[in-house]
Amino acid sequence: MMDKVMILDKNHAVLSIELFDEFCSEQLGLGSALHVVVEYSNNLGLIKETEEMQKTDELKEKIHHILLAKKYPHKEDPMIELDQVARVLYWLQKNGVPCLGHLKHRIILPCFRENSPLLPEFYRVVEAVKGELGSELGYGRKRKQFLPQKKRAAYAAAKSEYDPQNVLNPG
Length: 171
Description:
Helix content: 40-55%
Largest sheet: 5 strands, antiparallel
Shape: globular
Distance between the termini: 41 Å
């Protein structure tokens, strides 16, 4: 599958490549297989009717509500290079962690249960594939130890310049 995604990624007419893992696909009534939804800027896609396009957009929105209802409130947002996505997806599947993603942007969105003991291991997996956490949702206190040194230095410089009294966000 990832070979096809890499080919699609090079196509300038492809606007987005959305991933639904087996769990998410099943919850959406698509069957229990990985699904990739590709949006084109031209007429190359299989779905041409506006109604069908709207249904696809609704699925992308609906899955977030389903995952919350199924008690998967903790979403991560690592940026992973396409040649490493299969490795991360394998780990997620092996550990029963549902996942969707915006592959055109290299972002996967695994959804964990609250206080999941799998999170530290997941962070190590992301680090092992040279991925980067916080691509959409930022770092915060829980993940600041995983902030790359380069970003940490840039944030510290900006913080000292704009907040020398350390009043804002002292964490």
